[in-house]
Amino acid sequence: MPRIRFGPAGKPLSFKGPMEKVPEYLSKIGLDALEYEAVRGVRISEEKARKLGEEAAKYDVLLSMHAPYYINLASKEKEKAEASRRRLFEAVRASHWMNAYAVVFHPGYYKGWSSRSDAVKEVIRQLKLLEEDVDSHGYTGPWIAPETTGKDSQVGSVDDVIEICSNIERCRPAVDWAHLHARSQGREILSIDDVIRVIDKIEKELGSYAVKPLHTHFSKIEYGKGGEKMHHTLKEEEYGPDWIVVCKAYIMTGIDGVIISESPILEEDALYMIELCREVLEDGSFMAKAPSPKVTISPGKSAGRQGKR
Ligand SMILES: [Zn+2]
């Protein structure tokens, strides 16, 4: 039975206590995933990371981590590439401590390379070095998860991410649907077919592990010429993509999902996404097309409307 988990990117805005108490809070409000944000550097101690991991296991909250933004594995400057690898290594190590299943990161930039594929090859070369380092330390639990990025100058098209993961053993894609929408100047992720095409491509080229679950970021997004500008909430109708389109594609393909809300109102929109998916599931005409009508969305919790503030 497919399962879709939902959670915020970072500490819920409505929660004021310590990080290690977040899983308990999430389970209370009806969420079951959490992306720990180390976007400005991995600063958590081993002790705190392990405590967070224990709490997450206790409350059935699946942890992932977002690695620092300052990573460019395609840098032509040796020092920058090494520092990038170091930051990613630290994220993998902390993820190992907290038993986070995946470390999401932005691979880098095409700048300085004569072709996009050369930049991607360099990212792969750097990740192979990282893998050796990670293996030698035994931090082999977490998947590394290159993310589809929101700017045209960044490594991170669907093809880039698939290419990277085909060459790296413990690698799974992180699909940010808002980024793909922004990267394409709003031309993609408009229809259920757009979403299914991406899911099918990932599954076909990498194997079913990559969509069981598919690690996902979602929010609405504003874009300009170069791509992403800023994330927006689900209720801002002037922006895309449409969450219902994405949710329907997940249900129709029967994949598992981990959906991390990167909306400015984090957990509130994560709960709203559940509510919208539930409405989709209750739509009879749609269910007839779904190969697997039994989808668990944050099981045992009655989030939905009560989460609307
Ligand atoms: Zn990201």
Structure, described:
This protein is of the alpha/beta class. It has a single domain, classed as Divalent-metal-dependent TIM barrel enzymes (TIM Barrel), CATH 3.20.20.150. It is 42% helix and 17% strand. The chain has helices spanning 22-29, 46-58, 78-98, 116-137, 158-167, 177-183, 192-206, 243-253, 266-281, 284-289, and strands at 3-8, 33-37, 62-66, 102-105, 108-109, 143-146, 154-155, 174-176, 214-218, 220-224, 227-232, 257-261, 296-297. The strands form four sheets. A five-stranded parallel beta sheet has the order 8-9-12-1-13. Strands 2-3-4-6 form a four-stranded parallel beta sheet. It has a two-stranded antiparallel sheet with strand order 5-7. α3 links the parallel β3 and β4 (102-105). α2 (46-58) crosses α3, α5 packs parallel to α7 (192-206) and α8 crosses α9. The site of zinc ion has 4 residues, from loops.
Question: What's the SSE blueprint?
Answer:
Blueprint: E1 3-8, H1 22-29, E2 33-37, H2 46-58, E3 62-66, H3 78-98, E4 102-105, E5 108-109, H4 116-137, E6 143-146, E7 154-155, H5 158-167, E8 174-176, H6 177-183, H7 192-206, E9 214-218, E10 220-224, E11 227-232, H8 243-253, E12 257-261, H9 266-281, H10 284-289, E13 296-297
Parallel strand pairs: 1-12, 1-13, 2-3, 3-4, 4-6, 8-9, 9-12
Antiparallel strand pairs: 5-7, 10-11
Helix pairs in contact: 2-3, 3-4, 4-5, 5-7, 7-8, 8-9
Bound molecules: zinc ion.
Zinc ion binds next to loops.
